[in-house]
Amino acid sequence: MRKLAVFIALFWVVTSACKRQDTADLLPTSGKINTISVIIDDQLWNGQVGDSIRNTFAAPVLGLPQEEPLFDINQFPVKLLEGFVTSTRNILVVKKAKTTAYELVENEYATPQNVFHISGKTAYAILEVIRQNAPDIIQKMQQTEIVENQRLLDTSRISTAAVKKKFGVDIHLPTGYTMAMKSKKFLWYKKEITSGNSSLLIYQVPFHRVKTTNLIKSISKIRDSIGRLFIHGSYPNTQMITDKSYTPYLFKTKIRSKETFVTKGTWELRNDHMDGPFINYCIVDYPRNRMLIVEGFCYAPSTPKRDLMFELESIIKSVEFLKKPKLKYTK
Question: Is the pLDDT of residue 175 over 60?
Fold first, then answer.
């Protein structure tokens, strides 16, 4: 019995080592952020299955002023699943087969990579597999793209000493961002781009400022107060406010295991013609008895904004809480 246990342990070690070696030998993936390769024959692509894939994975991104797709899709026939196609990060393989199945294979051809295999006896069976698994597929793809975007941004970073000192957190800010304004409990970083600029705000408010009975209204009110204090146009009475024409989208998530409220919507300058999208992360920080708010917004007229906002979201999700102070608040 003891010999059997030793054999199993050795087998596990050898197998694990082989897996690690296999991953290490893989080439790195390539391609633009938020792009997926769909491997599917033309007959399926030009029918209901193709329509379902386009409607699902190229659906409009929530919170943008103009429609932009969730992912850019490149379609290839099944016979072309080779060469540069296998180096993309997200691959969706869809085909007819004798069995109906769904499988995710990570790092099948390169790393980091997600290869989603979907098959079915009929087009209807394939449609059902897509419908049932689409939310998980999208979530996995987005997680991979966030990590990849963070890796690219981390190749060159600026000092965040002011963030650490004021808020007890660190955040990965890439080169290009400079401090536009600071006050006792507020920091504003900005990056100039060809078509305008991207901004990142960091501030904090007491718990009681966020009313959980109406989170969207409460967070919008806080945003507007920050705009009134710090973010103005070139003329009097042109502060930034939440666009009242569209109700922001609200989600719940976790950042570093902390409950977080995410709002996505559009902003505008009062009595002016400037506007754009924003994404606001309101993080519940019980040890510090506060709501830490990290928000990104951009101004880029006549320019696609999906990837600009995705970069800001990648930066926001890099936030790290430093050494915790003595507990002040218990839930």
Answer: yes
